[in-house]
Amino acid sequence: MALGLEANLGDTVITTKLDEVINWGRQYSLWPFVFGTACCAIEFMSAAASQHDISRFGAEVVRFSPRQADLLLVCGTVTYKQAPVLKRIYEQMPDPKWVVSVGACACSGGIYDNYSTVQGIDSIIPVDIYISGCPPRPEAILDALIKLQDQIKGESVLVDRHKDFKGILD
Amino acid sequence: MNATALEKIRAAFPDATCSQVLNYVVVDVQPEKLQDTLTRLKNDQDFNCGLLLDVTAIDYLDYPTPQGARFRVVYTIKNWQDNLLVQVRALVSDPEAGVPSAVPLWDSARWGERETYDQYGINFQGHPDLRRILNHCQFEGHPLRKDYPIDKRQVLYETDSLEPQIRARLADKGIDEATMKDINTEVMYLNLGPSHPATHGAIRILTALDGETILANVNEIGYLHRGFEKTAEQRTYNQIVPLTDRLNYCSSMINNIAYVKAVESWLGIQITERAQFMRVVLTEFYRILDHLVCLAAALVDMGGLTNYWYLYNEKEAAYDFISRLTGARLTSSFTRIGGMYRDFYDGWKEDLERQLVDIEKGFGDALKLVQTNRIVHDRTQGVCVLPAETALSYGLTGPTLRASGVAYDMRKDAPYYNYEAFDFDVPIGTKGDVYDRFMIRFEEMVQSVRILRQVMKMIPEGPVNIKDSQVVLPEKAQVYNNIEGLANHFKLIFEGVKTPPGEWYDSFEAANGELGFHFVSDGSGRPYKLKVRPPCFYVMGAFHKMVEGNMIADAIINLSCINIIGGELDR
Ligand code: SF4
């Protein structure tokens, strides 16, 4: 039953906080851009295919243009040759945007501790969720998605989250 | 190879030192004789080595026995009709001067020599376009040289413009921009990638267009160059198995098997009968999976999403079988030197048969959608044609070569693991167009199912690992209960399986073509050098030959039908 102001306005109007209504919309309509570079991208294919079906979580509208996406899934190894490409793609995405680092390579370089591999993409762009595994199972990708949705719920539309981020390419 | 091949080569090259390694011939020549030797091996009807499989170099800086110079270049060539494999090697004391290029003989030397230059800094005189290929254009030093520290990282910013290359390519084709201006049109440059949905990974395809027609094309690879070869030098032989998973990650098991087979051949190990059959079962099963993923993605690129569900569902279902067997879905790491990680579980035959029935239904359904589909035919037939000679010259192997009409399949022409005992056909194409490349994969799946059904009937019982305490880990009961077992286990884990000093090459018919491994051993438990001969590296090297003159949309489907896998392409 509505109380206070709402009681006067009747059934047609509800009042809420701006953060809450916007975040509710954002949470369940994430549009992913899959930056698939290596083996982990195959597990994303599985997460998207019928059995695991990422659309159950509202994130099936995979965009292939960063300008239309708000969730960057970095699936696979990122090398120093690729790093500027990743940064450019991140910058092309409009705010608000979130980044999930999928798999050991993206999180930390994984088994490739050598001259060509970036030891974690968070030295290039800010990361919200890290998924372990080499490769992670599709369930882990879905789990990360749910965690991210929880995180979004607590955010404020007025706060610019990554204003001070400085990576090795900045 | 027969013993006479060595004699014949000896007689033909009296100045060279010829020797037999495994089942091929190694010819050591003076650098100034290199080009002459290669030319004769290619053009002489007695040798007729039409395929240049790979080019690499070795840096002997830390090698225990001096070789007479710091570097050596190695050309691996093959006469595929007679199964004659030859390695021609020459010492290089001054890498800046280098050796003459083999590009006039084989086009596959274009990329092969570029890689050798990039990784070892060896010059190839007369190479038309000698520049880096895997590493970034601003990278300093040559990472596979022994004095390049493995952890020396370089932050890089600029993108290679590739402008001189595409202009050179246009000039090669006789396209004059001034004339085009005259007739009121101009060349448009368009990049596909490095990050583009159709590149399935990261490859940069730069095209010069006239309307929608591709006039010229150059490609940049190396975005996934994650240092496999340098990392492998730091690992014991068995520790490299997980790294091989990540070469062609759509058929990880085939890499596992190809790799251990190469090590075993040098150790002179004959694995058990059951292990051989197991390896055939798993190879063929993964060949099917590889083709499923390739076709699923390719048909999506053509706009047929339904096929993706039909084909990918079977791949997903196959994971049940694979994870029951290996414990992992994608990265199997299931082989060990001397055998397998473990035997099949009880009831695997029923599981596998069920999978096969489903897979047949999956690709049958997909095939029904495309086989007589006019849109598919119009988009694929006569598109991106690659004639057989060009394919051979660019070092293609596997389904893409067979699509161009060359019936070369190592399972038939250089059989191992009893392949000669199985009844199967090698499908070949007639045109070498996209359609052939698609259909070959469908047909190869049918043939692999055929092989699998035969193997399942023939597989003998018995152990899956050989008994050799120098190679295979002892039983757990031994490790926990007696000191010899424990010491044996420790030694094998810490020092690795020791291989006798020497150099060798061995290859395997993987899903994408000939997957070869070139080793140099200094006698320790870790390879001194390990070079992969990745099939799709050379396929990508011929990409411009396929797409030039075709439409931009054809380049997309062509890329998906040749199944480029970044892990293997860039290593
Ligand atoms: S984390 Fe493992 S599976 Fe994922 S990209 Fe890296 S090596 Fe491949």
Tally of strands of chain A: 4
Secondary-structure element sequence of chain A? HHEHEHEHEH
Quick check: average pLDDT of chain A? 85
Given the C-alpha coordinates, what overall shape of chain B results? globular
For the largest beta sheet of chain A, what order do the strands appear in spatially? 1-2-3-4
Low-confidence stretches of chain A: none
The CATH topology of the largest domain in chain B is given as: Cytochrome-c3 Hydrogenase, chain B
Number of strands of chain B: 15
CATH superfamily of the largest domain in chain B: Cytochrome-c3 Hydrogenase, chain B
Reported CATH architecture of the largest domain in chain B: Orthogonal Bundle
Shape of chain A: globular
- Count of DSSP H/I helices of chain A: 6
Task: Quickly give the structural class of chain A.
Answer: alpha/beta
Strand content of chain B: 15-25%
CATH topology group of chain A: Rossmann fold
Helix content of chain A: 25-40%
Q: With helices defined by DSSP (H or I, 4 residues minimum), what is the helix count of chain B?
A: 22
What is the typical, i.e. mean, pLDDT of chain B?
A: 86
Main interface: chain pair and counts: A-B, 38 and 48 residues
Reading off the top of the CATH hierarchy, the class of chain A is best stated as: Alpha Beta
Family (chain A): Belongs to the complex I 20 kDa subunit family. In the N-terminal section; belongs to the complex I 20 kDa subunit family.
Cofactor (chain A): [4Fe-4S] cluster
Pfam families (chain A): Oxidored_q6 (PF01058)
Subcellular location (chain A): Cell inner membrane; Cell membrane
What can be said about this structure in brief?
The complex is a heterodimer of chains A (170) and B (571). Chain A has 170 residues and is of the alpha/beta class.
Description:
Chain A: Belongs to the complex I 20 kDa subunit family. In the N-terminal section; belongs to the complex I 20 kDa subunit family. Chain A: Pfam families: Oxidored_q6. Chain A: InterPro entries: NADH_UbQ_OxRdtase-like_20kDa (IPR006137), NADH_UQ_OxRdtase_20Kd_su (IPR006138). Chain A: It catalyses: a quinone + NADH + 5 H(+)(in) = a quinol + NAD(+) + 4 H(+)(out). Chain A: It is a peripheral membrane protein. Chain B: It catalyses: a quinone + NADH + 5 H(+)(in) = a quinol + NAD(+) + 4 H(+)(out). The complex is a heterodimer of chains A (170) and B (571). With 170 residues, chain A is of the alpha/beta class. Chain A has a single domain (31-153), classed as Rossmann fold (3-Layer(aba) Sandwich), CATH 3.40.50. Helices cover 34% and strands 11% of the residues of chain A. Chain A contains six helices and four strands. Chain A has a four-stranded parallel sheet with strand order 1-2-3-4. In chain A, α4 links the parallel β2 (71-75) and β3 (98-102). In chain A, α2 (18-27) packs antiparallel against α6 and α3 (39-48) packs across α6. The mean pLDDT of chain A is 85. Chain B is an alpha+beta fold and 571 residues long. Chain B has two domains: 3-125, NADH:ubiquinone oxidoreductase Nqo5 subunit (Beta Polymerase, domain 2, 2-Layer Sandwich), CATH 3.30.460.80; 228-570, Orthogonal Bundle (Cytochrome-c3 Hydrogenase, chain B), CATH 1.10.645.10. Chain B has helices spanning 3-12, 31-43, 109-120, 163-172, 177-182, 228-232, 240-245, 252-267, 273-301, 305-326, 348-371, 374-380, 388-393, 398-403, 410-413, 434-458, 476-481, 483-495, 535-541, 543-547, 552-561, 566-570, and strands at residues 17-21, 24-29, 51-59, 71-79, 84-92, 99-100, 124-125, 188-192, 204-210, 213-220, 335-336, 339-340, 502-510, 513-521, 527-533. In chain B, strands 1-2-5-4-3 form a five-stranded mixed sheet. A three-stranded antiparallel sheet of chain B has the order 8-9-10. In chain B, α9 packs antiparallel against α16 and α9 runs antiparallel to α21 (552-561). The longest helix of chain B has 29 residues, at 273-301. The interface between A and B is large, with 38 and 48 residues. The structure holds iron/sulfur cluster (SF4).
